[in-house]
Structures are given as C-alpha cells and as structure tokens.
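Hello again,

I reread your note about wanting to compare the complex against the isolated chains. To keep things tidy I'm splitting this into two emails, and this first one only covers the full assembly. Below are the input lines as submitted, including protein chains and any nucleic acid or small-molecule components. They are followed by the predicted structure of everything together. The single-chain runs will come separately.
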Amino acid sequence: MARTITMREAVNEALDQEMARDPSVVLMGEDIVGGAGSPGEDDAWGGVLGVTKGLYAKYGRERLLDTPLSESAYIGAAIGAATCGLRPVAELMFIDFMGVCFDQIYNQAAKFRYMFGGKAETPVTIRAMVGAGFRAAAQHSQMLTPLFTHIPGLKVVCPSTPYDTKGLLAAAIRDNDPVIFCEHKAMYDMSGDVPEGTYTIPLGEAEVVREGNDCTIVAYGLMVHRALEAAQALSTESISCEVIDLRTLSPLDLDTVLESVESTGRLVCVDEATPRCNIAADVSAQVTQQAFSALQAGIQMVTAPHTPVPFSPVLEDAYIPSAAKVASAVRRTMGKE
Amino acid sequence: MTAGEGITPVVMPKWGLSMKEGKVVDWLVADGDDIAVGTELMDVETDKINGTVEAPDAGRLRRLVAEEGQTYPVKALLGVLADESVSDADIDAFIASYVVPVEEEESDEDVYAFAEVGGIKVRYSRQGSTDGKTVVLLHGFGGDLDNWLFNMGPLAAVADVVALDLPGHGQSAVTLPEASVEALTGFVSAFLDGLGVEQAHLVGHSLGAAVAAQLALDQPERVAGLVLVAPAGFGPEINMDYIDGFVGAASKKDLKPVLAQLFADESLVTRSLIDGVLRYKRLDGVGDLLAALAAGVFPDGRQASQPGLDLDPGRLPVTVVWGSDDQVIPVAHADAVPDGATVVVLEKAGHMVQMERAGEVNELLLAQLG
Amino acid sequence: MADNPFPLDRDRLLAAYRTMRTIREFEDRLHVDFSRGDIPGFVHLYAGEEAAATGIMMHLRPTDRIASTHRGHGHCIAKGVDPRRMMKEIYGRKGGSCEGKGGSMHIAELDVGMMGANGILGAGAPLACGAALAAKMRGDGDVAISFVGDGASNQGTFLESLNLAAVWDLPAIFVVENNAYAESTSRSYAVAVESYVDRASGFGLPGVSVDGTDFFAVYEAAGEIIDRARRGGGPALLECEMVRFHGHFEGDAQTYRAPGEQEELRKTRNCLTRFRSAVTEAGVLTDAELDAIDAEALALIDEAVVGALAAPEPTADDLLTDVYVSY
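Full-complex prediction:
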C-alpha cells in the first residue's frame, strides 16, 4: 500500500526490510540503538535524530552494534567485515566526520577491487547525514559529496524524496560495491508517498522531475526542491524549466542531462556544496565538453559560497542556495537578467 | 439564483478514488460557444492522469471561471453554462455564492479495502448505492483498478461498484494463484464469495475481459451481464512486443514507447502515468511475476484460451467495445464476437478505450445496466 | 633419531624451515634484482623476520584472516600465497596475485585469508576487527590477525582497534613486529611505553612479548593466544621483538644504523641459523635435509623470477577494469 511517510521513516523502513530479507545485513554506528551500558533505557536514542529507532526491538544488539567513538576503527571494521561475507551498513553520524576515517573509505574500501586484481568485493554501505539548515555550524553542516565522487571505486547517492530514499537505500545495501548514502538532515521530516512493499531504484539513474523547454536545471538533495520552487515561479514569467534530480552522484547519469540540454540549450547546475570542484563544476565541465554545440548560453552554477557554514541563522540562510538565486541564474541564461 | 434556474455549473470532476484536485491546462472552448452534452470543455491534469472535462448538459458557455495553469479542488466551480435569457448579474451572483462542497477528508484507508483470498491479500474499492445492481471492474495485464478512474464515478451514481487489483497487480500482494485465465477466474469467484456478492455485472478490460467471460461460462447464475472492453479471449493474436516490452522495461525511457502503444493519442502517456507504472514494476518480485503471467496466458506469443467465443448473448447480455486503433489486441477479433452481442468500435481510440473515450464507454456501461 | 623435544613433529618442523627459507630467498633475491633496477616501485623486505610470520601462521587455517603491512611478503608466503604469483605481481605482470594492479604493497589472496598487504600503516587493524567480527558472527572459531610495525603501533587506527576489539570481545590478535626502526626513527624515540605489554593492558587486552627471531618462542606464544581467541577468550596483543636485515625500503642507504649493524645481525640474530642449530643439535632433523630444502627454495625463487619476466604485461584495456563490481 502506498501511504505517506517521512524521509526518516523511509530510511528506517528500508533498513528494517533489508535486515529482514538478508541476515548478513548488520548495522553499526554511534548510538544507533543508544544507551549501551548505561543505567537507563536501551534504544534510548535510536540514532541521534531517531532514524534507527525501533530496529533494536526486532533485531537486538547482535545485528545493531553501538560503537565507541572511534570512526576509523568501526568504519574500517565495517569495511573489513564486508570483505568477509557480511553486508554491513555503517553510520557515519555526520559526513563532516569523514576526516577521521577517510583512509579506510578511500584508500581501503574504494581500492580493494582494483588493487587486488578484481577478486575482492566490498558490499559496505556507509550512511551519513549531510547538509546545512540546522544551525549546526561549520563542522556539522557540510555537503562533502564531491570528496567522495572524486574517488574511483566509491558510489555516492543523495536522494531528494522519501520514495527515492527507501528505494535507493535498499539498492545501495544490495549493491556489491562500497556506497556512500547521503541523508539530508533538513529533509528527514519531509513527507511523501511510499509503498509498503520492498522495492529498489537503480543506482546511476537521474530523474526528470519536471519537464520543460527553455532551460535545464540540474540539482540533487535539498536543492531539487529549491529548483522546483524556482521553476514554478519562472513558469509565471513564461519560462519553462526542466528540472533533473541526479539522485546518484557516482555513477553519474550524464546521458539524461545531455539529452535535456540538447533540447533546451541552457543549463543551470545547483549544488549545496562549496564551489571549488563540486558536482556543479563537474557536470558543467562534462556538458561543455560533450554538448558544446547544443548550448545557446554559458552554463550557470548556483552554489554555496567558498566559506565554512556559518552559525548565525541569517548567515546560514544566505549560505544555502535559494530558489530566488536559482531563478536568477535561469534568467541569466535566457539573457533576461 | 441557483443551479436549475437555467444555470448549469461545470465543476472539477473526481477521477478515481484518490483524486483531490486537478490543474486546468487548457480551455478547449470559448466564451459564448454553444455547448452540447458531452462536448470537451477543458484539459485537466491530475497527479495520476491527464483527462478532459466534458459538458454535463447543453447550454451556452457564459463564464470561464477556471484559469489555465491553476489548480482547483474536486467539485470546484470551473465554468457556468446558461442560456441567453439568464442575466450577467444573476450569473455573477451564482458564482459569488458558490461554495465548494467540503469533501470529507478521506484517507486512503477509508477509500480502499483489503481482503485475503486463498492466502493472497488484494486491494479493492467498493462504492456507490448499495441497493442497486453490483458491477465488478476487472483490469488487464499489468494494470490496476485505477485503469477505471474515469468510469467509477459515473457508475457509482447508479450502482454498487467493486473494483479489484488482481493478484500481483496494483497494491495487491505480489503473488499469483497460477498463471492462467482459469486460475484468475477462480480467484475472482472466491473474492466475490468473500464479499457476499451473489450476482453482478462484470466489466473486464483486456485480460480482465477474458476472466470475466470465463466466469460467465463457469457460473452463469452469477453473471447478470458482461461489458468487455478491448477484450482478450476472442482470438489468438496478442502484441507480444507490447507484452514483452512492458515486462522488460526498467526505466522511464524504456517504458514510454511501450505505454504509448496503449493509446491512440500518445500525449496521454504523461510523466506521472509512466512514473506510476514504474513504481509498480520496481516492487520486488513484480518483474518475475509478470513474466510468469505472460508465459502462462500468452504461451508462444498467442492467447492461450478464447472463452469469448463460447458466450451465448441470447441468454446473457454482452456488450463489446473496441478502439479502432488498438495496437495490443487487434480490433478484427470483434468480428468473432458471437451474434446477438452489442459490438461498438470507437474510431481513433486505442487499447485503453475506457480511458480515451470515457464518456462513450460510460454511456454503454450505463445502458447495459439499464 | 633422538626424541623430539619440540612442539611440532618432524614434518611440521621441515615445513616451518621451508617456509622461512622460502621467505629468506624470496627477499634476498628481490634485494639483488631491485638494486639492478629491474623492479618498479617500492619494495619493503622481510628478511630477518621470518620466524614471526611462520611461527604465527602455522597455527592458522585458510579461513582465518590476516591484515598485513607494507612489508608483507613474509606474511603472504607464510599464509600460503604462491611465490610465483607474488613475483609476477611485484614485476607488475598479468597472472600476478593482483593481475599486476596492486604491486608489492598490495598483494592479497583472499582465498587463503590474506586480506592484503597495505600501503597505509595501521590501516589493517580496523579491517582485521571487521574480519574478526564476521568470524564471531559465524561462530566457526576463526580468528583474524592484524600485523603492525613498531612505527604503526602509534597510529590512531591501531589504538582504536585495540579498544574496539576489547569492547566487542573479538577474536582479533594484534601482532606488533618490533624491528626497532620505523623507517629511520628508532622505536625507543617514538614509542612512549617501554613494553608493548603495558600498552596492551592500558587498552584492556592481555599482552605478551617474545623474541621474534626465536621460531619456537613465537610458535608457543602465538599458539596460546590464537587458541584462546578461537574458544571465545577474546583479543590479545603479541609483540615479536625482531630485526630486519635490509632497509625500510629498497634503496634505503640505512645510514641511521650503526656501521656494520646489518652484517652483525645476520650473524647473531639470524632466525634460520638459530632454528637449524636447535633442530640439528637435538638430532631431530639433519643438515642434509635442511640443505635440500635450501636448494629447493632457491630453485623455486629462480622459477618465480623467470616466470615473472616471461609473464605478459597488462594491456590498455586492463587499466579500466575492476574498479567496481558493476557501474
């Protein structure tokens, strides 16, 4: 049955259903159950934002492992266990913490298959919260997706709806390569129609979420919603935008973007990540290289500024790309601004 | 002034069970046009399908209330028909005083129900007058009860309408009784037993029509009449490119040209239609189930059984409706319908004729019910 | 023949010697070939350390996993990786353990439980925790061993892994191969504790320290630890105090060592001569038997080098394969 649930519930449901389906799926992370060894209740937290709450009652501490504050050890353990027949889903609480365990991810997990001549399989999924808007300040609010898409051997996913979240997380868990699964913390309460049954959405497939003729807007995660708001506003100015949700950042579905740009001739890339070498820059360069003759105007990128994420709410709101900024960028491609 | 004193309101219809609002895309007629019953007035887009609002009555179009590009709730006032004797002031007063009837907030839980039949959980809906005749709607291969979304409302005004997601389809469990018309027929029979439906008119589309015909042959006392829409069961031919394409398509790009084969007007294959089909096909097990069903009912690329040919229209009212441009099951099969049945071929309509030509199909349905 | 006072029977003693000798010949041969400029990249040689790898690995089965270091050839050979495939890998040829795509620092053979040599020091410790976790969940008594050097014993990954293994009570064994030098820096400078046993107990694990050039000391200590872990007794740390005969990497001038230090160590702390003395003096094995093994090992290494030089190089297509299982 399709019913309306939140993105948080969609994550929980995907984890629950995949754990039920496959006994080799185990979860590990800090406080994913909560209360380990503490005198109060178990399942005290179910994750810092409650995403994994309730799984403990079904699967116990044998399959839900709370970890010490030790990212390089337990992310590495998840990776090592993945090469030994388990299918771990490890939670890196905030993607900002990748610094303390990045070697395990990019030098170990990402490279085993290639370095070992094709024999290794590392079916690990690393879930991490991304994004700004929570006033969590510089070290808990980043969109570090480009650091991972840069690494051959990793897959990177960042959904924008509850429906996509459940299907892509199930697909990521079933995938036999290491997948970084990004959950935007500001979208956990977003609601959407999600089937009760189990399903997967293929990785590496972008989605045209709004059709249009004048300009293509490429976005992912929270920015898809900013792009849709901009497209709606622009439709009252008789500007018709096609909005593409990348969904998977690596592998990147460039074909869908190219097909759209061949038709519209204009491209705006929206990215919450800071501007140097981000996904917007990546897509822009590839489109320029492969579809230059289709372009009727220079490509515009709408990104965060080259700064850390500020704390003060008025500053953070200015930091995150807005629908108005996206609309301006579209108008610039049309020569209307 | 009220409706009835020469004023006919044109309102946002309710297509299917879960429609809450629609976006007016295009007015198809102009201010001052004289409108006949059934004239297409405007194109409306909903989250499930694009459709056309037809005039409920004859009259002159005196006001275009709805604006193109705006979204309105079900039963909102979209336009006013009145003859020239009604004054502008009266029409303005009518519009000003019109209140959208508040629809009871129905969640999906109220509108749909579930039943377990032979261990398989199926979704169904039941609406309409409980003291009238019962009509059971059966969709076809890969479809679901929303294939009837333009037909359910008008039927429910005069009958008790039951619509079912067959096993392995829609939101029913992803399991088949067995991959055959006979097994599906037995399933539908057991389902009706569970609902306490002793007798009904069966309306079937495509494969669902073959099931309806088989049930009429197996249990004549149960079936009061048959309306068979673009039916399977009247000949061996079936477009396996369509069937195989539908089973195999895994992306919107693959699915779009497949679904285009269902309609004479390809523009009806909207993004939201494709999206809905893809969401169904992505459910675990659906791909294998559809492949098994196709292999069972269309072995070697031919329809396995032709129950339609054994029907006796002398004993049982049978209406058959076909679109002349049906790309899935050839309209030529209509020639094999036994004498005595009402056979109607609608020009420029495809396989989903109950959607493409809803008005005319609804008329035929209501006529059959009497 | 005399009574056998050793904890291994004759066949196993011969096997131990063969393993150690194979490693020694493999490494000493690489030293020569590398200095001629034949071998690409970086090579880190295990010569002098053979007793540690051998004494430990003789307790392991193919399903036990080990995570090795940059100095991994000895671990590979002792775990059962084919030296001929290893040599091809070191030469970057197809048919190598990693089809030429990993090189000396990344040789892996998952089928025999060798999770890989590792170019990142200390990175193997968390991976071994993961292998131990999987083994614990399977409940089959398998263990996982993480090797680190005295240098990497200071890495956060290693220390975090000690804690994690203790907290989760994993069948994980941490072996510190203390050869006194972390590149050019002495262990006495870089490691604050006097004894690794103290470091272990500081993290909540039992620890033991042995002379890593004494095969029998290693064998006995390792056996106890491994056996206990198999029976659910939890993790432990084993320090093997040892020497390396060559530099940190090949090409290392080793001016940080005292003059004549390497030659002296080859005489006084040579695990092979020590083993030979012990078994022949006890009358359990003869020099002739051991000489025969010496010759066979040399022949095997010769065969490996010839095979490596003859093996085809990877093609342009091979550059792009096996980044993912599917993409």
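For quick reference: Chain A has two domains: 2-195, 207-333.

B.
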